[in-house]
Structures are given as C-alpha cells and as structure tokens.
Design goal:
273 residues; alpha/beta; Rossmann fold; Pantoate--beta-alanine Ligase, Chain: A,domain 2; six-stranded parallel beta sheet; three-stranded antiparallel beta sheet; 39% helix; globular; binds pantoate
Length: 273
Amino acid sequence: MTIIKTIEKLKQTIRQTKGSIGFVPTMGALHEGHISLIKKARLENDVVVVSIFINPTQFLAGEDLDKYPKKQEADEKICEFSGVDILFTPNINTMYSQDEVLIKAPILKSYTLEGQRRPEHFDGVLRIVLKLFNLVQPTNAYFGKKDAQQLSLIKQMVDDLFLDVNIIECEIIRQKDGLALSSRNVYLDNKQRQLALNISLSLRIASDMVAKHNMDCEKIIEAMKKVMDSLDIEYIAIVDRKFEKLDFCELKNTIILVAVKIDKIRLIDNIWI
Ligand code: PAF
C-alpha cells in the first residue's frame, strides 16, 4: 500500500494507474462499515484508493471538529489488511485555498432532515467529494446507505455535473442485535446502547408493516414513535429514493429514516424498502 499526502504525488500516481479505480472516501476512524465498502471496492476494481480526510467544511460552527475521533495508525493497518493500494491522507492546507470556487448543494433537498439541523453541511460534503473525485478519477465510488441523504445528494451531483463515475450504494452494516455501525457508537454506555436498539427495532416494525401491505406513512410513523417513546426523536421521515416526502410507501422506492439523540449522542439509521 502506498500512502500519499500530496496532490502532486496523487495525480502522478493516478496518471500511471491502469484499469478500473474503486474509491472509498472516508474521514477515518474506520470500522466494519468502512471495511465492507473497501472489500466491495477490492472485489470490483483493479486498483483501490481510500482517502482519509476530516473535512472541516462539512462541520458547522459549534460542532466540535477537534473532537472527531482520529485513529491514524489503526486506520492505516485496516487499509493495508483490506487490500487498499493507495491511501490518500492530505492535510487541510492542501485541499482548500482562500476565496475559492464553491459548489452549492440543491437548496430544497439539502436543508431538510440532516440539513435542517446542519445547514450548509451538505455544501461542505459535495465540495470535498467533488475535489476528491477530480483527483482520484474513480471508475466506481462506494458510499454507505446509512448516510442516505448524503448518498442521494452525491448521486444528484454526479448527474447534474455530468461526472463520469458510478456511485455504488452499499448496505448498512449492523451488529447482531441490529444496531447500525457508526463511529459514534463508541460514546454509548451500556444503558444508552440498550436504548439505541429501539431505533433498529422501530425500522424492523416499519418494514413488517409494509410487508403486510400497511403502506400509510402516517400510521407507520405513529408505530415507530411508540417503539421509540423513551428516545429524543429528532425526525422520522419516509421519502422516495430522490428524497421527496411520501404519503404512502412505494415498494423499491422508499427510504424510512430516523434521527434520535440519546443524551448528547446523535444517531441516525434507515431502511430501504
Ligand atoms: O461520509 C463521510 O465520511 C464523509 O461525509 C465523506 C463522504 C468522506 C466526505 O467528507
């Protein structure tokens, strides 16, 4: 595995690369969820590139960028064991300059749900993902369905800006008891973790309702709220794959999303139906 820190070296290496490039952009603190993306990229491409960059522009003022977990050594080992060819770990000064050209996420779809609590967050995500795509020139780029709104906006950016990259949607990885993997799970103590299980339970109940042809979104949301009555629910939303709100679930075109807070720990999860 080659570790690259500079743009020049990355460009030079990419120019010499032959065959398909599978790309997994990350902010580090890699867990099984990331590993599953890397493994899929490894299976489907000649060359696998992973980036680790804690992107400041997607954090808002007051969000503690400095507290974002950093596990450089462990991350490097994980990449090495998972068969990564190129690990790109730029520092902040190389990725951004003063007064640069900006990209804006679509207003209607980026200021709702995650974007309502974190306005401009998705501007920052698209800004860095576009830069990384331009540098890495991937054939296929891998994103988890867990960040469903991010995934949808990245797909829209690829369509709207005519980018030449396939976005590969990857399944959510869960622990045996249903908890979706997240870098934030490490902050949960036993009691909080127990409470967090109600999130995936509520999604299972929702999917059971749909399996029994109960498609009414209002009723599904009501049932989910009951299961999560001990949690501080930020939102439950039922949308189609383009993130338009639905009144009735549509098979193969529905995403049911949840965001909750357990004490100060914010968790999101979703299910694709
Ligand atoms: O999902 C993430 O880890 C980040 O939002 C991404 C896509 C790496 C951009 O910084």
